[in-house]
Amino acid sequence: xxxxxxxxxxxxxxxxxxxxxxxxxxxxxxxxxxxxxxxxxxxxxxxxxxxxxxxxxxxxxxxxxxxx
Length: 68
Known about the structure:
The chain is α+β, with helices and mostly antiparallel strands.
């Protein structure tokens, strides 16, 4: 599994997928859930950088703390 960065012009998500095709499918579903847009215009699919993964983990930890 690899972590992919999947993005439109305005939003992005990180998804764990085996390949770029799976990342597109998972990313599209995540972007639909995030934005409510049924047809997100995905412009970028690439491997996520270590910094992007670290930022995402930090953000998830902060959200978890706020909801406790």
